[in-house]
Write a structure and sequence with these properties.
The protein is α+β, with helices and mostly antiparallel strands. It has two domains: 156 residues, Electron Transport, Fmn-binding Protein, Chain A (Pnp Oxidase, Chain A, Roll), CATH 2.30.110; 40 residues, no CATH class. The protein contains seven helices and nine strands, in the order H-H-H-E-E-E-E-H-E-E-H-H-H-E-E-E. Strands 1, 2, 3, 4, 5, 6, 7, 8 and 9 form a nine-stranded antiparallel β-sheet that branches. The chain is globular.
Length: 224
């Protein structure tokens, strides 16, 4: 009863959350000043986020949907982008890997709070080439390469001691030259739709959507 009271709409705690307000007034986003191609707009915003030294500008939320039709999200790090799409690396046997194997549609979201900006990207996902995965894997620090072997990602384990023991095991086995695990590599999301959101005063935010139509990007404004 106590917990239900604390989370009821009339409780002081929920009222305090409901009363949180922020006026977004840092910048604007209009059709004349934006790039005609979404990749150019994304590159400009990402570089501005990096230049502003905001925390982890490369962090993005990845949303996937499993065979049970239930969505799930997690934070991953962008490791590359070009005309082909957005790239990140992970364990293919993880929950997200299993979901992508059964349903190759996904969404990404960047939230740069300090700049009052959000970028949303939707499209299909494919694995990158073995050559791309190998090149990135061997550029990682040694402990991260060992960690890719040590962690049975998303599986239930008895405790942290399992990870420590696995890291010691594979560290002794591979020494300074661990190969890329067969269950680890990159994914590329091929965008079919982008949305750029810029916070504005009075909740009249700017939203520009780019959608792919017959191989061309169509830019249009969405109501906030």
């Amino acid at each position: 009863m106590h917990n239900r009271a604390m989370t009821s709409p009339s409780s002081p705690l929920s009222s305090a959350i409901a009363d949180l307000r922020k006026s977004y007034e840092r910048a604007e986003l209009n059709e004349d000043a934006s790039h005609p191609a979404p990749l150019q707009q994304f590159d400009q915003w990402l570089q501005e986020a990096i230049k502003a030294q905001i925390p982890e500008p490369n962090a993005m939320t990845l949303a996937t949907v499993g065979s049970d039709l239930r969505p799930s999200t997690r934070i991953v790090l962008i490791k590359g982008y070009d005309e082909r799409g957005i790239v990140w690396f992970t364990n293919y046997d993880s929950r997200k890997g299993r979901q992508l194997a059964g349903n190759p549609f996904a969404a990404l979201q960047f939230h740069w709070v300090e700049l009052e900006r959000v970028v949303r990207i939707e499209g299909t996902v494919e694995k990158v080439s073995d050559e791309e995965s190998d090149a990135y894997f061997h550029s990682r620090p040694l402990d991260s390469r060992i960690g890719a072997w040590a962690s049975p990602q998303s599986q239930v384990i008895a405790g942290r001691s399992v990870l420590v023991a696995n890291a010691a095991k594979y560290g002794a086995q591979f020494m300074l030259k661990p190969p890329r695990p067969p269950h680890w590599g990159g994914y590329r999301l091929k965008p079919e739709q982008w949305e750029f959101w810029q916070g504005r005063k009075s909740r009249l935010h700017d939203r520009l959507r780019y959608r792919l139509d017959a191989g061309e990007w169509v830019r249009e404004r969405l109501a906030p």
